[in-house]
Amino acid sequence: MTTPPTPLADRADAATNLVLHFLDQAARYGDDPFLWHKSGGEWRSRSWREVADDVSRLAAALAATGIRRGDRVVLVSENRPEWLIADYAIMAAGAITVPAYTTNTEADHRHILTDSGAVAAVVSTTKLAAALLPAVVTADACRLVIAFEPLRVAQASGTRLVDWTTLLTSQPADVARTRADIVAGRADLACLIYTSGTGGTPRGVRQHHGMLLANVAAACEIIEQDFPGGDDSFLSFLPLSHAYEHTCGQFTAIGLGASIHYAEGLEKLAANMEEVAPTIMVVVPRLFEVLRARIGKGIEKQGGTAITLFNAALRLGRKRYERGGTLPLTDRPYDALLDATIRRRVQARFGGRLKTLVSGGAPLNADVGLFFAALGLTLCQGYGQTEAGPLISCNRPSHKIKMHSVGPVLRGGEARIAADGEILIRGENVMDGYWKNDIDSHKALQDGWLLTGDIGRIDADGHLIITDRKKDILVSDKGDNISPARVEGMLTLQPEIMQAMVHGDRRPYLVGLVVPDPEWALGWARDAGMPADLARLRAEPEFARALQAAVDRVNARVAAHERVRRIVVADAPFTTDNGEMTPSLKIRRHVIEGVYGARLDALYG
């Protein structure tokens, strides 16, 4: 009698730590392709066995440099195979990975190095080292930098620089780290992730092995039950330094025995999707909004039959959703035609094998979710926080996808709603506190429950529905509570508006800051006979009126206290480079208000 395979979730539940879980998977999948990157115009792979060997040898080499159990090691790199190898080697050496964003400034790196007390740093390129090395020089504990590529350094600084390849080959195979050397338990610290946050100094979230393995078990259960079939492939493009991609795009892929393709960058994401045909993608709502606009414009250019089929797909998709997943018999022949035409073409843009797109990191507008579902893509919105590893809940087909919800709480977790409406979470996936920050730890954790800071409710089907962010609620001078994220989400669905922020706490009405969509703006200028110069357009009253007309379309759909009466046109887009967005593409209100606050306040005059 054949023994049935162990469920993937059970493998993660049974694992002592992340490294042993990975080594078990590597032994299971052996010479199968695992990590893919593009080099010389071709996709090249490394097998599970090759990656495991590199992890073991690098762990031994790290130990030989003096890195000890419990030491912290900062990791600064783009998404690439070496990121995963370094991450697991650090943990295999008994140390703690401290991921840092590639967009960090020298000051950001200095804070993380100093606060974590990191003894070493790993960096990919000379470009990224330019911001890191000056911070290393002034950090007390960090005296070793390991670089994936040779660094061009003009002058020695007292910091030891080590080449990745040299270090990797410095240890013979017989002294490589073995299973017996890897002694971390589920309660031991695996990773220290500094939350970028929308305000304040970043805090180090203590992520233990069990927390992350609990996330893997929960995610694997969903994929195995709702999207079966195996042979999964991930396309990794969100920053691995963010908990969302780190857990969902790396640890979960390993739990599934999936391969990982590292995208060449956002600018080549569309081409990469068609080339590698992923089955699972971890995405943020902003990507959906951009793709929705591009798909709509593409259909509009085709005209005629394409527009008719497109509108029919959206109409029947909404109808199916509202009827709980079914259509009347009379609609099914037309729906089959749409499957064979427009939906197939849309799916081909994602490679043609996509099982699901998992959305997280920020709220997803329900209309955007319905748009992609109507075009034949299974979109599952989830919810999480770095403090929970980050997975808390997720929509899944077997539990009825609800676009306005973030789904049921995942395996092993509990949720309850506090008296003031705040969502509280408990389970192994919850952190044990912030690094060296007892005050904030006590604020965030009470009697084993994580206080999420989000306001919500649990419906009759067990779905978690988030209604507001506790700290981000604006209160009008009349006492009306306003969720700025809701209004901003509706504004950015207008074709004229790429980004938006509303303003108006303790004020009689809302005002807004809008970033025009560049393509729309240039088209408007052409039609108006004006120069295609965004800087000059911002000063044109007619241009501002056209944007206000888009705002007024939203005003017609919201409550009176949510209407945006007047707007300012932003000088430039919100980006991570100017500090107005976090790396996970959330706006930093305090930074933006520092730049535009006076102009926004002047709108009340």
Q: What is this structure, in a nutshell?
A:
It contains 20 helices and 25 strands.
Topology:
Blueprint: H1 8-14, H2 18-29, E1 33-39, E2 42-47, H3 48-64, E3 72-76, H4 81-92, E4 96-100, H5 106-116, E5 120-123, H6 126-138, E6 144-147, E7 160-163, H7 164-168, E8 189-194, E9 204-208, H8 209-226, E10 233-236, H9 243-256, E11 259-262, H10 269-276, E12 280-283, H11 285-302, H12 304-322, H13 332-349, E13 356-359, H14 366-374, E14 379-384, E15 391-394, E16 413-417, E17 422-427, H15 438-444, E18 445-446, E19 449-458, E20 464-469, E21 474-475, E22 481-482, H16 484-491, E23 497-503, E24 510-516, H17 518-528, H18 534-537, H19 541-555, E25 564-569, H20 589-602
Parallel strand pairs: 1-11, 3-4, 3-5, 5-6, 6-7, 10-11, 12-13, 13-14, 24-25
Antiparallel strand pairs: 1-2, 8-9, 14-15, 16-17, 17-19, 18-19, 19-20, 21-22, 23-24
Helix pairs in contact: 1-8, 2-3, 3-4, 5-6, 8-9, 12-13, 12-14
Describe it for me?
The protein is of the alpha/beta class and about 600 residues long. Among the domains are: about 170 residues, Rossmann fold; about 130 residues, GMP Synthetase, Chain A, domain 3 (2-Layer Sandwich), CATH 3.30.300.30. The protein contains 20 helices and 25 strands. Strands 4-3-5-6-7 form a 5-stranded parallel sheet, sandwiched between helices. Strand 5, helix 6 and strand 6 form a beta-alpha-beta unit. Helix 1 runs antiparallel to helix 8 and helix 12 crosses helix 14. The protein is globular, with a radius of gyration of 25 Å. The chain starts with 7 loop residues before the first helix and ends with a helix.
